[in-house]
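Job type: complex structure
Entries:
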Amino acid sequence: MSRYNLAAMPSELESAMESLIKVFHRYASKDGKSGTLSRRELRELMENELSTFLKSQKDPAAVDKIMKNLDTNGDGQVDFEEFVSLVVGLSIACEQCYQMHMKKMGKQ
Amino acid sequence: MSRYNLAAMPSELESAMESLIKVFHRYASKDGKSGTLSRRELRELMENELSTFLKSQKDPAAVDKIMKNLDTNGDGQVDFEEFVSLVVGLSIACEQCYQMHMKKMGKQ
């Protein structure tokens, strides 16, 4: 494979960033304002894309509470920057589990 | 496909989060402290995984400056939280380009 082809193919990290943007817009474009997630769109995104996390939340009002936390400017809509802060929080929590898991594996 | 299989398959968003963690640890484990990126590991990660972005940086000291900005606690190492803030910044910049692109497409 030539250098040109390698450069044209997105890396794993670039693909991950592209996924964040694509998933956000897939749900944000469903109704009303297309550049932001309404409460309903956020719920749908979380039910479909973060079902593992959502199932671990025993509180039925979890999505509403998350919406309230994410919507820092209080306009009832979650924009991309606000959405990314949710993904970051979850990734950091996952990474801490991963580190603990690796430490445990190392001790065995 | 049964509900069970659907639940077991990670969503696009979950795969993206997994990629962030995997890519970070692939480079962080190369030398020295395995849970963090040294300057050399960060440079290698950016050259391989963010080559498109890095090529757009005309400043040869770009990686050093990014390292300085990311390393908020000043220990010469970039941990996962610091790394994620780089990915977030780039994703937000990409998303703004995406929004502008979509607006342009809509006007045509």
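Summary: Chain A has a mean pLDDT of 85. Residues 80-107 of chain A form the longest helix (28 residues).
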